[in-house]
Amino acid sequence: MCGVDLECEDVKMYYNAVNEAKNEIKEIIMKALGKLTAEGELPSEPLPAFSVTIPADSAHGDFSANTALVCAKTLKTNPRTLGEKIRGAIELSGTLFNKVELAGAGFLNFFLGGQFFSSVVENVLDLRDDYGKTDLGEGKRVLVEFVSANPTGPMHIGNARGGAIGDCLASLLQTAGYKADREFYINDAGNQVAKFGKSLDLRYLQLCGDEGQKIISECGGDLEKLCDAVYDKTAADSEDSPADKNDPFYMPEDVYLGKDIIEHAKNFYDINGNSYARKSEEERRKALVDYALPLNEKRLEDDLLKYRIKYDNWFKESSLHNSGAVTEVIEHLKAGGHTYEKDGALWLNAEALGGEQDFVLVRSNGFPTYIVPDIAYHYNKLITRGYDTAIDVLGADHHGYVKRMRICLKAMGIDEQRLDVVICQMVMLVRDGKPTKLSKRSGKAITLATLLDEVPIDNARFFFNLRAADTHLDFDLDLAVEESSKNPVFYVQYAHARICRLLGKMAEDGAKYSGEPTKYEAEEEKTLIRKIAEYPELINEAAREYSPFKLTKYVYELAQIFHKFYDSCDIKTADSDVKLSRLALCEASKTVIKNILSLLKIDAPEKM
Prior knowledge:
Blueprint: E1 3-7, E2 10-14, H1 17-38, E3 52-53, E4 63-65, H2 67-71, H3 79-89, E5 97-103, E6 107-112, H4 114-127, E7 141-145, H5 157-175, E8 179-186, H6 191-208, H7 210-219, H8 223-233, E9 235-236, E10 250-251, H9 259-272, H10 281-306, E11 313-316, H11 317-322, H12 325-335, E12 339-342, E13 345-348, E14 359-362, H13 371-384, E15 389-395, H14 399-411, E16 419-424, E17 427-431, E18 434-435, H15 448-454, H16 457-464, E19 473-476, H17 477-480, H18 488-508, H19 523-545, H20 549-568, H21 576-599
Parallel strand pairs: 7-8, 7-15, 8-11, 9-10, 15-16, 17-19
Antiparallel strand pairs: 1-2, 3-4, 4-6, 5-6, 12-13, 13-14, 17-18
């Protein structure tokens, strides 16, 4: 075992076969170098670090060390000669390896013995659900903030991608030994809420007017029909052509035009009638926002729960204003000498802190810009609540924002490296090989909710993690619902179901692995075990890079290798020892597939 972590009197074991093998190779080589130095074959010199990697082709060894290449200059010899000396001094007795070869300019290629393959399978079956867990994070606290869509409307496809990536990233970090929390930042203050209130106000007054009353009467109790009717009659401003401001359904350019706004206004009207039409604009807008905003927040939460995302905390921007945290940020930056006044506004001297240009913190009208509450929010994450790292999962248009926020943290005396950001690039929905923005069923724009009406949740979560976050994603709606091997989700789930069916049938016939010693000689067996052995190290790599897409890539490749093993290696009629060893390997494969799918919050079906 690689290590033991004692916590709350529970013992958690972490097993990383690849890391163990690499460390053993380094020990083998260092012993050989020590022997050569003691015999006078090499000078006694401090040596540079060398690396041990996995060759792309196992014919070149299971592991390869570049020791001779990086140490030759220090030891005043050429790499090939040094490699020959090291190879001659290596002792493999009692190790995981049975052969070492010298290749190329001096690479030392190590070949695994049978003990390694048996130990991998047996350790997987010992650890079961815990296989793959690592202690990389050492219990450090990480806050993953993602989606954080404005509560002024439904979530779009970009939010769907950010949700899948952020949620799986948090699970990945937990698997890698971090204490990761999920958080949704509710933008319930500022310009977007004012815009939301103005939009609701205009729609409510329209419904209270003569034309609105006529539509209400014509549509009866059919809310969808009413929303469509009002929307169709809307005269909206645009950049190209201003609308007639005298039109009863005129909407200016700086409002939300979605049908959800009409729906809220109609439901508010049903409760209050036209009584608020006679109140002040300020009182009316506040009442409308107080009514509609909590409903939108609840809708966001419900849609995300359906998507299998449950947050540890929902943090409201308004709490930062109400607590005085926003004002404290401004005073802190002033006291630190990082601000100056110009044209009646308060500016941050960002250039002096390494930024590209200065920017406004407080407008000339006394209202802070959006960046100030965001600074207060990140201060709250990293200082008030004491998270070691804050990870923001943001949309493609936030590159400039990230640079600004890091400058602001620096000005607040916070190490800006404690903020990490994952930028999610755009998603293009494709149907029939062509880009689409509409739901096939409703003909309306595809939101997260309508997407999940068309695409199974398992498939949506897998597909959104098929590519790195910083790359463009074409989401094939047809492929996502196809039940064939072309669909990567179906292909992986079928591998799990296939193993379950096999193990169940073999158990009925009296063949079941129960801890007997295993032995593997076929190359297809070893290839599969090598892949299984990579999993814990893959967790570490993916966690370091904040790349949950590496999990979907890995599990798809694992399924491919398993199918090849299953088709090549007889199990049902094999000799007893071989049969039990292969059943153990099938059980180990099933365990890894299930662990990854569980991490991704995707079902691992036993029947398909």
